[in-house]
Design goal:
Strand 2 and strand 3 form a beta hairpin. About 15% of the residues lie in helices and about 45% in strands. By secondary structure, it is mainly β. The strands form two sheets. Strands 1-2-3-4 form a four-stranded antiparallel sheet. GO terms for molecular function: omega-amidase activity.
Length: about 80
């Protein structure tokens, strides 16, 4: 069973209030002890219509210049 802590309630409420569909992305989602880079779609009925957890995380290492590893913070989605 997934135990997730969603930071998305505000998005679903706004979608309902304005009777629109909202796509909210690049939101950290904690689920089963792992942090995911998540995008959600909410309909005007406040219901979650779709959810995507980023699969291909951005990692770059240019010696002597820049190093960034999204995978140090986020888990890859499924």
């Amino acid at each position: 069973m997934e135990i997730c802590h969603h930071p998305f309630p505000m998005l679903s409420e706004v979608a309902s209030c304005y009777r629109i569909t909202i796509v909210g992305g690049s939101i950290p989602e904690l689920c089963n002890g792992r942090l995911y880079n998540t995008c959600c779609v909410f309909g005007s009925d406040e219901k979650l219509k779709a959810k995507h957890r980023k699969i291909h995380l951005f990692d770059i290492d240019i010696p002597g210049d820049i190093s960034y590893k999204e995978s140090d913070l986020f888990a890859a989605g499924d």
